[in-house]
Automatic annotation (TrEMBL):
This is UDP-N-acetylmuramoylalanine--D-glutamate ligase. Gene3D superfamilies: Mur ligase, C-terminal domain, Mur-like, catalytic domain, NAD(P)-binding Rossmann-like Domain. It comes from Cloacibacterium normanense. Residues 106-283 form the Mur ligase central domain. Residues 306-418 form the Mur ligase C-terminal domain. It comes from the Bacteria. The gene is murD.
Amino acid sequence: MKVVILGGGESGVGAAILAKTKGLEVFLSDKGEIKENYKKVLVENGIEFEEKNHDEERILAADWVIKSPGVPKKAEMVQKIKAKGIRLSSEIEFGAEFTNAKIIAITGSNGKTTTTSLIYHILKNDNLNVGLGGNIGKSFAMQVAQENFDYYVLEVSSFQLDDIQNFRPYISLLLNLSPDHLDQYNYNYEEYALAKFRIAENQENDNYFIYNKDDEMSQKLLQELDLRVKQIPFSMKEKLEEGGFTEEEKIVVKLHDEFSMKIEDLSLMGTHNVANSLAASIASKLLNISNESIRNSLMTFQAVEHRLEGVAEINGVKFINDSKATNVNATYYALESMKTPTVWIVGGTDKGNDYTEIEDLVKRKVKAIVCLGLDNSKIIEFFKDKKDIIVDTSSMEEAVKTAKSLAEKGDTVLLSPCCASFDLFNNYEHRGQLFKEEVLKNN
């Protein structure tokens, strides 16, 4: 069987290694430049590859094409592969074909990385033999090739779900839905939401689908879709007969028995993380992890880097790095969890943001806005009549210096940009790293 891999990054190289170990004929093609560390792996494993080019004839002679999530589905080569009827899969589909491990797959518009990391932490803490992959950490396919895990906890994006055929997790989670990446889904929110729901389309009644009962779009689509999977809800608003909910400052999970713990004992801050902790607890109970072990893990989990990450407290001012908040909905959760007057650093590459969603929170919680980006006119225009202090900056150094001068003892400085980072930074990690460096400078 001839397998062609499109994209020479983490997932592409992992898929190439897996194909090679399974004795398949493999060729990797990347339209851009492949990083040196990945080239080295390909050379060492005797895998043929090309960069800065797509050999169309060779690609279209494949039996199976594995597409990295970074390759746009509207790309010309992808359209040609589809037109020819060649099987086109994502790396998670490819990896899942070669493992019998139980897969716990997590998707949603916000909270995926945190919840995936949290579930992995709970399983690892309970001494289960578990791998972490998907949209996070080491390539899933590479782990299938080189490890022998009994469980995989996978963060899964809509782009990866676009290219599945048989992918069937043991437990799937859909945390929430809000408009994101709409440029890839014809600016149609429902089309994007349906892509997320594909996580459950191959599941059977011996599998589990954990979903958010408070999410309107999820509720709407659940009524329209014919899912065979066992469905388990969680809610922050109502008490449930089965599933997860909050009651009297506690999280409660009711399945074959009951698990509960005080919200104040959770290591993660913010209402949205109570919901994430509920979802993770349900998954853990389904895997027969003891209440004591779940409680211990929920108390000891460290927040994901760049996601409501406490950086320091300097002269009574808290600094929080939420660089991963690249859309308005993510920033909504961050602002909602602020307990003190907040100096808010916002801005970057706008993805068609509508700031009305956070208008009320900004009025109530934010004392000053520091804009960080090459073009902050949209943010300034929207908030100019709502906040007295708005400062325009175009470097991280300037933004942090300004925020420090505006913050007083008892305040919080929050970097939660609402926007992509590509105007000034390589990615959100780079943006968050520079924020932390500037905060800790000269202390």
